[in-house]
Design brief:
The complex is a heterodimer of chains A (about 240) and B (about 260). Chain A contains nine helices and no strands. Chain A has about 240 residues and is mostly helical. The relative contact order of chain A is 0.15. Chain A has a single domain, classed as Orthogonal Bundle (MetI-like fold), CATH 1.10.3720. In chain A, about 80% of the residues lie in helices and about 0% in strands. Chain B is of the alpha/beta class and about 260 residues long. Chain B folds into two domains: about 170 residues, 3-Layer(aba) Sandwich (Rossmann fold), CATH 3.40.50; about 70 residues, no CATH class. A six-stranded mixed sheet of chain B has the order 6-7-8-3-9-10, sandwiched between helices. The chains are: A mainly alpha (about 240), B alpha/beta (about 260). At the A-B interface, helix 6 and helix 7 of A face helix 3, strand 6, helix 4 and helix 6 of B. Bound molecules: adenosine-5'-diphosphate (ADP) and magnesium ion.
């Protein structure tokens, strides 16, 4: 088979297919990660002592262990719990125990969102703590409730300040989404590996895969920059 | 129900502060502070730095909950209010802070409009109309679309006054509204405050601008170590031969301010 034929008929279609799967993993993971990050970050910055302890532990665990290990636990580890439950309670427990049996897709998104959320919460927490207390006081003095203050004052300010960090985390997420391959997902890297070992064309396969990721990251950076510019406040220094 | 009727109907007392005390970090910051504000009255609170003036204003507003004592607005006790009622109570009292505390992420117009929309539930257009009319009142209509970072200190403070006024407060508490300003910007803010006083707004103002204050107030309160130790007409407290601490303090201030 000629090189062009290989590229046009084999590699590129396979990578395109993988790209689509990758995007299907990355987008929900990133969105969930940001939502988890906001809730956990806010809880850590503003919550009670107990809540802070619980959320800090979550972050410590998910930042302190390798993502590959987390992914293995989600996909291979949780089904063991299912077996244990069924051994104890019999088949009636199925409706509940089956919840522990995750598809490769769900396991990947869960692992990435939980891990990403832990990192995102760091940026959100820092951003909330950097807001001057007086602004909360001003809101309360106008008759805002605590939750109104959070949604209308704290959140918009914190998100702006956290945006550069959160954007970076999304860029990381794009790259570590390639780990989904190890739980049998045929995403970008998984497809590349399949073709590479089938045709023994490792160099071309992985180089082109790298280009695909580079493109994804470039597009994501561009969009994030646009959002940052859109939200930038005139007269204030922008974080570069 | 009948509680309101128990209050003397002839009395024009709008705000009554009853023996507020507050301990922070093991230190007694407020020690049984009492004062009243009649309708339309403009009182001035002075005292050395660290004497508890800011804490007092924030306790009156229940931004810092006082340990003991009570605040009555129109005869209604804030102490007995639920969380929800406290937010209603706060709406009725406007607060001006030394460092403005404008919302950084909102334009001048939105700073004024946001509470109208989110707290009072006004429609967007009505809220903006009101915001623009309040900005006009403080002479800043042309700055409506600028962000706080694009405004001078004096302009920021005027926006914060417009923001408070838009809520139709019955009372304004002002905590050193000109202390963070360059000298040449103080006048524009004092002019707005003077206008407010002349329009009959009830106000309690912490300030070191005694030259301004003595013309507009009939009672000055002097605070020291968490207590109001002297109170009276400025002519009395600041008379040339006065032996009051207020006089001594005012001499110290004029030395610093250089007039
Ligand atoms: N949260 C706090 N914890 C401990 N001490 C405080 C706190 N807030 C204020 N203080 C102290 O209370 C005193 C009065 O402060 P403040 O009300 O700001 O005085 P003023 O406005 O008259 O300068 C100061 O000695 C200050 O250090
Ligand atoms: Mg003060």
């Amino acid at each position: 088979m000629g090189t062009w034929e290989f590229y046009l008929n084999i590699l590129i279609p396979a990578l395109n297919k993988g790209l689509l799967v990758s995007i299907q993993i990355i987008v929900p993971s990133a969105i969930l990660g940001v939502i988890i990050g906001i809730l956990v970050g806010a809880g850590r910055a503003l919550g009670s002592k107990w809540l802070t302890v619980i959320l800090d532990s979550y972050v410590a665990v998910f930042r302190g262990t390798p993502l590959v290990v987390q992914l293995m636990l989600w996909f291979y580890g949780l089904p063991s719990i299912r077996l244990i439950l069924e051994a104890h309670f019999g088949p009636e427990i199925r409706p509940i125990s089956n919840l522990f049996l995750l598809s490769p897709y769900v396991a990947s998104v869960a692992a990435f969102a939980m891990c990403s959320g832990a990192y995102q919460s760091e940026y959100i927490r820092g951003a909330i703590l950097s807001i001057k207390k007086g602004q909360f006081k001003a809101a309360l003095s106008l008759g805002f409730t605590k939750s109104q203050t959070f949604w209308h004052i704290t959140c918009p300010m914190a998100i702006r300040r956290a945006l550069p960090g959160c954007g970076n985390e999304i860029i990381y997420l794009i790259k570590y989404s390639s780990l989904a391959m190890i739980v049998t997902m045929s995403e970008l890297t998984g497809e590349a590996k399949g073709i590479a070992s089938l045709y023994f064309r490792h160099l071309e396969c992985y180089l082109l895969t790298a280009v695909y990721y580079l493109l994804l990251v470039t597009i994501a950076s561009f969009i994030l920059k646009k959002i940052e510019n859109y939200l930038a406040i005139p007269g204030q220094l922008r974080s570069q | 129900m009948t509680l309101d009727k128990l209050v003397d109907p002839d009395s024009q007392t709008l705000l009554e502060v009853r023996e507020l005390s507050k301990t922070l970090g093991g230190k007694k910051i407020l020690d049984k502070v009492s004062l009243t504000l009649d309708k339309g009255e403009f009182k001035v609170l002075i005292g050395p730095s660290g004497s508890g003036k800011s804490t007092l204003l924030q306790c009156i507003h229940f931004l810092i909950p006082p340990d003991t004592g009570d605040v009555l607005l129109d005869g209604k006790s804030a102490r007995e209010m639920s969380h929800r009622d406290i937010t209603l109570f706060r709406r009725e009292i406007g607060m001006i802070f030394q460092d403005f505390n404008l919302f950084d992420h909102l334009t001048a117009k939105d700073n004024v409009a946001i509470a109208l929309r989110r707290v009072k539930g006004m429609k967007k257009k009505d809220a903006y109309d009101r915001a623009l009319s309040e900005l006009t009142r403080v002479g800043l209509l042309d700055k409506a679309d600028l962000f706080p970072a694009e405004l001078s200190g004096g302009q920021k403070q005027r926006v914060s006054i417009a923001r408070a006024l838009a809520m139709d407060p019955k009372i304004m508490l002002l905590d050193e509204p000109t202390s963070a300003l360059d000298p040449e910007l103080i006048g524009e803010v004092l002019n707005v405050i003077q206008g407010l006083s002349e329009s009959g707004m009830t106000m309690l103002m912490v300030t070191h601008q005694l030259g301004f204050a003595r013309h507009f107030t009939n009672e000055m309160l002097f605070m020291e170590d968490g207590r109001i130790t002297e109170r009276g007409a400025p002519e009395e407290l600041l008379a040339i031969d006065s032996t009051f601490r207020t006089k001594e303090f005012s001499l110290k201030l004029s030395k610093i301010q250089g007039h």
